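Task: sequence in, structure out. Protein: Ectomycorrhiza-regulated small secreted protein.
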Amino acid sequence: MVTLKRHVFLQLSIVLLVAVRDANANSHILGNGAPLQTNGAESGIDVSTGTASLSFRVPFGDAVALRIITAERYGLGDDADEEWSKILPAHGHVVHVAQDASAPPEPHTVTLFHQLKCIDIIRAQYKLPQSAPISLRTGHCLNYLRQTILCKSNLVLESVDDQFGHSDRNFYDTVCRDWTALYREAERNQAAYEGLSMKSGEKRG
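Result:
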């Protein structure tokens, strides 16, 4: 059973890693349902406060190569906890965006980071005894991943060995957006938010 769980989890991880390269493609929906269109070469919510620079806009630049492979890293066991803890930016998966200079910053989660967090939540559920109840967060994450993967449907054709879709291949190469650009922008946004918070605190003091 443990082997089966590990296999299923690794397959889920591979599917998601391929799917999330197309995350945040053309437009983003804020809580009020208003779409914010972006430049075709860039992706993200393109709003800023000017001096505070509380925006989230990702210039992805050149594509990068990725080998989709079943690896030992980012596994299910306790020995992988540290790796999973570092898969998100140090401040977490939230960015802060202000519509204009007079508006207060509002928190938003980034879809890619939310997806990765959800994999880790499902991983934690797998580690529990079978008798443990399925948590609400796990149920949320399973459907969230299903919906976001469907939304950005990946059309890459993967070779198989028979008409049932079985395959002994354990890797293939693909081309992705440079996800490190998204991490850099999230860290820049967090630094801007912390700087603004410090200034606000000084004014109140």
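Residues 2-204 form one domain.
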